[in-house]
Every structure is written in C-alpha cells, then in structure tokens.
Amino acid sequence: MENYAPMFPSASSHEFSSKNNNSTKEELFFQGKKSTTNSGFLGLMASMETPNRGSTSFENEVKSCKMKGEKKIKKPRYAFQTRSQVDILDDGYRWRKYGQKAVKNNKFPRSYYRCTHQGCNVKKQVQRLSKDEGVVVTTYEGMHSHPIDKSTDNFEHILSQMQIYASF
DNA sequence: CGTTTTTGACCTGCGC
DNA sequence: GCGCAGGTCAAAAACG
Length: 168
Description:
Strand content: 25-35%
Largest sheet: 6 strands, mixed
Main location: nucleus
Helix content: under 10%
Region (Disordered): 1-25
Structural class: mainly beta
Number of strands: 6
Organism: Datura stramonium (Jimsonweed)
InterPro entries: WRKY_dom, WRKY_dom_sf, WRKY_plant
Protein name: WRKY transcription factor
C-alpha cells in the first residue's frame, strides 16, 4: 500500500482489512456535493454542482469473478454519484473503454473503462440512472499509482492536484 | 499508422 | 444443471 491514492484522501480507510471475513466487496459511496472539506476532487467537482440528491440505497454486489482465481484480493470500489449531461467525467487520467453492457434495471448501458497506464489496473465504470437521466454514477475500482496524465489545462486542475498532494 | 471505440462472444457466480 | 446477469476479451472498425 505504498501507493498513494491521489484522489481519495478518505480512501486510507480501505487498508483496515479488519473485518473482511466473507465479504469480498467493499464500496464507499460518495456523493457529488459541494463539500469543500478536503475531498481533493474539486477539479471534477467544478463540472458538477448538485447540492440536492439524497438518493441512496444503491445496491451493487461485486462478485470477483476473476478468470483463474489468481487474485481474490479485496477490491475497494468508490462510487461517485454526480449530475452531468455527459458520461465522460474526465478526472485527469487516460481511460480506455473495454466493454459496455446493459443493466437489468437500467435502460442505459454501463460503460467499463480501464486506465491505459502500464501497471495501472485501475478500472472504472460509468452508469446512468434510468430514473434520472442527468444522474451519472461513476464507480472507481483500484488506486492509481502514478501521477495524473493530463496537461495543465486550467487552474482548476492545477489546484485540484495541489490539494490532492497536499493531503499527504 | 497507432490508438481507441465498438460490439458480439465468452466466462463466471448465483439462484432456481 | 440450466439460465440469467454481470464482467471481460478480442477482432474489426473508426478516428486522429
């Protein structure tokens, strides 16, 4: 766990591994709010400002259906519920789409992305709620062990990164 | 020409 | 054991 989590300062709570008896699934659910506490996600938050959205009870069971049962390590997932028109919430990393499936309860398909960096197997999936077209749930899986690969476009990103690294 | 998207097939876990 | 649902692979197309 020497890898720092650039985007999730609160993610340090995932290394507890205290009571992962049988549940291989761990998910932390964040909501895209304007909480300027120390999320370090401001670069992204700038694109989404949704004070209200209290929908909870989001069930998603992760089943680590790996191929050959190599690594059944627990994989923390972080879900972000945002309100945006587009699904592509650019967080600064390079993603390559590797799949798209339709969900049962959802009319909209779910997109699966993967970080294109070598050795970085961070995955993310973007889901759109059928109830509210404007609500997009982005679920991150894994941690990035490399700096953000995005040219400094504007001050928002710079500030975002500064706050991210300042958290450590 | 290299990289990414698209899209169907394939795999796996779970419930019946 | 079979079918369903979710997740991934991989070949070809699309894009710069």
